[in-house]
Amino acid sequence: MAKNKDARPPTFAVSVVGLSGTEKDKGNCGVGKSCLCNRYVRPDADNYYSEHTSVLSTIDFGGRVVNNDHFLYWGDVCHRGDDGLDCRIQIIEQTEFIDDQTFLPHRSTNLQPYTKRAASTKLQSAEKLMYICTDQLGLEQDFDQKQMPDGKLNIDGFVLCIDVSKGCNRKFDDQMKFVNSLYSHVAKTKKPIVVAATKCDECVDQHLRDLQAYVASKKNLLLVETSSRTNVNVELCFNSLLQQLDKSRGKPKTVPYLESYKVQRQAVASVTDRFEKLMVQTVRDYHTTWKAVTNNLRGQSDYEEFITLEGTRKARNTFSKHIAQLKHEHIRKRREEYLTTLPKTLNNMLNNLDEVEHLSWHEAQSVIRNRHDFQFWFIILDQTPWDESDHVDNSDRRIPFDLLDTPEAERIYRNHVQHLLTEKRRGEMKERFKKTLERVHFIGAGQPWEEVMCFVMEDEAYKYITEMDRRDVYARHQQEIVERAKEEFQEMLFEHAELFYDLDLNATPSYDKMTEIHSVLSEEPRYRALQKLAPDRESLLLKHIGFVYHPTKETCLSGQNCVDLKVEQVLANRLVQLDHGRSNLYYNNPGVDKLNLCLLGKEGLAQELANEIRAQSTDDEYTLDGKIYELELLPVDVNSTLLFSHTWVSTFKPHGCFCVFSSIESLNSIGDCIGRIRAEIAGSRRDRFAQPLPFILILANQRDSICKNIPILRHQGQQLANKLQCTFVDIPSGAFPRKFTEFQIKQGLRAVLDNMKHNFDFLAPLPSIKDMSDADLRIVMCAMCWDPFSVDLILSPFLDSHCCSAGPTGQSNTLILDKILGDTRRRIQVTVLSYHSAIGVRKDELVHGYILVYSAKRKASMATLRAFLAEVQDVIPVQMVAITDSQADFFENDAIKELMTEGEHIATEIVAKFTALYSLSQYHRQTEVFTPFFNEVYEKRQSIESSFLFDNSSRECTTGASEDVFPTSPHSHSPAYNTYYPDSDDDNEAPPPYSPIGDDVQLLPTPSERAKYRIDLEGNEYPVHSTPVGEHERNHKVPPPVRPKPVLTKPNVRKLDPNLLKTIEAGMRSNRRMPRSPLAHADDVETSENYADPVDKLRSRGYLNDDIYAVPEDSHGRLIKIRNLGGLHHGGPEEENGYERKANSTARRPSKYKHRSKILFSKTKMYQRRFQSDSDGEESGPATQKKKKGRAHRGSEEDPLLSPADPWKQGIDNPAITSDPEQDEKKMKKKKGGKPPKEPKKPKSSKPAKPLYPPTRRTWDSNYFGVPLENLVTQDRPIPLFIEKCVDYIEKTGLTTEGLYRVSGNKTDQDNIQKVFDQDHSMDLVVLDVAVNAAAGALKAFFADLPDPLIPYSLHPELVEAAKIVDFMERLLVLREIVKKFPPVNYNVFKYIITHLNRVSQHSKMTLMTPDNLSICFWPTLMRPDFENMDTLSTTKLNQSVVECFILQSDYFFHGGEVAESSSSEGTPPPHCHSMVEALLPLQLPPPLQPQIQHHLQPEPLL
């Protein structure tokens, strides 16, 4: 040991020795001395070299590293022990270098043999450099150069290396001989020696044992098992020697190789794992380079440790593997992406099962490649396979086509085909299941799937599809039911239009009004159909009411089907070109001298007619009525294809078409052909001002004059002509040899000319003397939204007319008609609106007439018309139009017949016009359908305007203090629409739909007046499709004998309208408060068939006049004679200062149509009367109270509100409808001598309160029921026999009964069960054949009759407190302890009944009785609380939840079972609640004693 005077760390020199020499001596490889030194001096993996050679050239041997010595200087190692002491160890390896030429040892200065030379303790070699590796020799300048200190060393200890591996051409015994010799020389130096067993990673166990035995035979010799390759125990070997050199150091523990190897491998595995994780976290792109990774990871401990232990080479290998894995993962993901996209691609390209079902995959690929969208889904690569090409890095997500050649792609194709088959079958089964559901008629809107499931479980489709599909199909089916129910509910609301017409303007329906609405609607099945969707139903009702308040296009419930929108669209499309195409028609009409005739027939008839016409012509010129016409004929067979192309019309331009027939077959063909021609022309007509083509039906004569078919053909031809609105030309009387006569041809030509003249009359030049915005008449046409007909149908009479043009700018729903009314052309402004838009008309605008359209297929349409018409003033003429498909509907459909008949009845009552339009008729576009109505409106225009002006002036003169008989009301508008005059803005809010009934107009005359006057409108007769004014009204009373009515000789007097005369008479009997009597216009008065009142009768009423026939005085005291009324309208200037002008200056005060129609008035008042008759309550008198008491909980079987006759018991409050004077007198007497007024009701508090639980509910004496439980049980029978029988019967027969214990049984059956049991305890409920619900009710009644409840009152507070415990398990433990406090008898029965209820709850899917529902039904019976106590009311939910807990956890409480899992309310309380229930308001529950009242409880929990 070298002395260190400078107090520097001590330095020790260690010599590593072992077998050395030539190959003959040591074999092909050494014993591992160099590797041991290398691993100790430079332990990091990058500086460890496993190959060190001893065969050197002479030059290398003489270099500064070897320096002609047979030993190597490995450098020094600083060592710090566990005790903190530092030292330096210098390593010398004693070896023997072999000449690479002679393979003999190099000659050195020391010529001693290796055994002696290796034992030398003093070494000297000047400027000897440190050895690193073999590559260093000759390139010393490229490596770290470090000299051996001072050129000499003193050896302090030896490490003897012995190879325990198999060796190469070397025997272990020979090595041991060499070692034994070497050891003997080294031992003589007295230096410490440590034996290192090298290459233990390739150890031969026998060699190791022999070495262990050898070492053990030597004194103070230590063996360390090492492995330089795995770096195991290398440092331990030198540390052991160091401890022998410095005894002050602690002796290291010698660890066998295997144990150290495990520790080493664990350390390496840990470092490797951390390095791999670091690599995964750092390197995510397989394009990353190793250089970039090393720069990024340098300095990180995991990286540095791995480099130290495993080296850079292994680190790079790990990196390369990770990169390869990333690339492989990338390719895998791309492949999965492609394969995932492939099914979607196949679904888009090969989605037709019939096309691909029998194709092979190869054939399918060909089909795919030929598809037009192939390039969208696939790409063909130049380089294949795709995963070795650049496509893997491409962003193109199209599938490489070569991928389809893989087995995975073929498998996907097969799965796709199978999926198509499965989906086809699945779709078929879903549709089949849907049809099954449609056959289950009791499924209602909002009904849950669980209630329906049990009824369809046996269906094959149900079993085939999955639960998800079942629920999906049911959801769709339920959605259809709900949508249909909502549509029907909405339709029902429209059908009850009169129910909503009197809503107030404040947009807040009163409670009474909403009660009335619900009371009326609740009788409708369509209302009850949404019972389970009550919130949706209420929302629809409120939405409807909101629409009624604000009826606009935007709020229309029909959305885009609103009539206003559709009318705007149609008019915008068809009235765009106002004057286009008119100039030629209006101004360039030359005289007609040429006629183009199309001759239509079958089997040569057309050609025969053409020959006959030519025979009567001269050079195609025909003389008719003194004028010559040039005829051009085009005979066409009905089967010719020419007729099915509209081009022949535009090229030939026919003026008319002669259609000839001679048989039923040819007539039918003609009819079909005419319909097709009209449809073809109408569909292809570009010029809407073109003239319509007239058709003339001509019956051909039969050669056989005695042909019997002529009458039939004549009748059928006339019928077809009427249907098609054609002209029919019959065979003239007499016998003619030819098929066609000159008379027939001339009649046909005259019909064509008349049609042309008629059209030319309408094509006169446009009037220019008036401004376009100035109209003579203003007409409003109303239609109902959602009616089942096209808007074109009702617009076609206007749009197909040649005199139709667009309305003023800004009025998109208006059109202008130019019509000849009388002898003058007039301008008619027609505004087409929906009823809800027409409702909003303002009173200060003038409307001359209404065209009210309704669908005869829809009750709601008629109801809306009635509600609208009821509020129209009766001076305004009305045209009612019914729409249906064809005339046959009236005879084939009772509903259509009923609505059309009702429309005709109303029209008859109000003296309105009625007509019908048929959507399937090819001639429904007749342009003159409304001309009679326009004429009527024009004739009454002056009286309408006078009434309108009078109404305005009377309103203006009204003061706040005066009593206005006709007050201004936003509900009683004179019909005009808001969009007429946009400058008017006095109404900022949309008006309500209909006025409240009355509008302060008293409808009921006083009883005395009703006794005096009687008008009977019953028994009116009316035609089917028209309503002429005149003879349909009769006065059926027997008049007093008066002188005959004098004949009026004034020549210009017109007939008096009987309806307006009736109105005048009704006005004479109107309310006495009215200061004026309504006065009819002369045009509306007819004197021919009505009696006037004699003057003496008028005097008896207070009228003063000497004329025998007179009407009452007007408001100014003037008496107007009926005979003078006829001249009011036609009076000339000579009457200006006369009496008639004064009479004309006072127009009749308008009333409303509801006062003139029994139907309108009855519908208006019906709802109010029905509601009042049912809501009068206790004010109805004792008789009514007694009647109501007799039907306490149910109304009439047909009507729960009132009997159908109730609304009419007091007659109709309408002066236009007569009352019976005798009946009125009886009523007055009954009122005068009626019963005394009722005594005021006593307050409810004065009534004696009923006992909450009467002593018994039975009407018979019993020794069993109502006695304490102790008297009914024995030790052998702890459960009363009656309870056992009921429970046994219920569990055998009732576990599938829906609503068990909730639905009450018949009370009589319950009593009979107990009575029979009283008489015979061995009774059998099965033999009695009673209903399960009756047995359940009898069981509940048994507990209700007990003197004390089954759950003792004394334990109720404890149960309530236990229910408030938040912790679930703690709550169960406390409840179990409370149950143990029950009296034994009560405990046994309680256990029995709770266990039974638990079994019932297990069948809740069929019974719908969950533990929660059962507890709601049973807890009042088992606990019998005092509901008059407020404390009890506040704990009702807690009591119920306790019983629910007992039912759900019965196994835990009574049978030692486990706690049951449940999601019900029994479980852990919700987060916001600290007890089993939330805070509840006191519940006003009925006493639960009577079992029959339990049906009021719903199957939902109280929470």
**How confident overall, as mean pLDDT?**
75
Classification by helices and strands: alpha/beta
- Spatial strand arrangement across the major sheet: 20-21-22-19-23-24-25
Helix content: 40-55%
Task: Give the oligomer, counting copies of the same chain as homo and different chains as hetero.
Answer: single chain
Mind telling me the C-alpha Rg? Answer: 58 Å
What gross morphology would you assign? elongated
* Poorly predicted spans: 1-5, 577-590, 762-773, 958-1147, 1173-1255, 1463-1503
How many strand elements? 27
Summarize the topology.
Layout (H helix, E strand, L loop, with lengths): L10 E8 L4 H4 L6 H9 L13 E2 L1 H4 L9 E10 L5 E9 L3 E2 L14 H5 L3 E3 L27 E3 L2 E7 L8 H16 L5 E6 L6 H13 L4 E4 L8 H12 L11 H26 L7 H8 L3 H49 L3 H4 L4 H9 L4 H4 E2 L19 E2 L6 H33 L9 H8 L3 H5 L2 H29 L1 H4 L10 H11 L3 H4 L5 H16 L13 H12 L8 H5 L6 E8 L3 H12 L4 E4 L2 E11 L9 H6 L3 E6 L2 H21 L10 E5 L10 H15 L2 E3 L12 H21 L14 E7 L7 H9 L4 E3 L7 E8 L2 E11 H4 L10 E7 L3 H12 L7 E7 L3 H5 L1 H17 L2 E6 L12 H9 L1 H16 L50 H6 L45 H11 L26 H7 L8 E4 L5 E3 H4 L13 H7 L12 H18 L6 H9 L30 H12 L48 H13 L13 H13 L5 H4 L3 H13 L11 H8 L4 H12 L4 H18 L2 H4 L3 H13 L6 H5 ...
Parallel strand pairs: 1-4, 1-8, 2-5, 8-9, 9-10, 11-12, 13-15, 13-16, 16-17, 17-18, 19-22, 19-23, 23-24, 24-25
Antiparallel strand pairs: 3-4, 6-7, 14-15, 20-21, 21-22, 26-27
Helix pairs in contact: 8-10, 10-14, 14-17, 17-21, 17-31, 22-29, 26-27, 31-41, 44-47, 45-47, 48-49, 48-54, 52-54
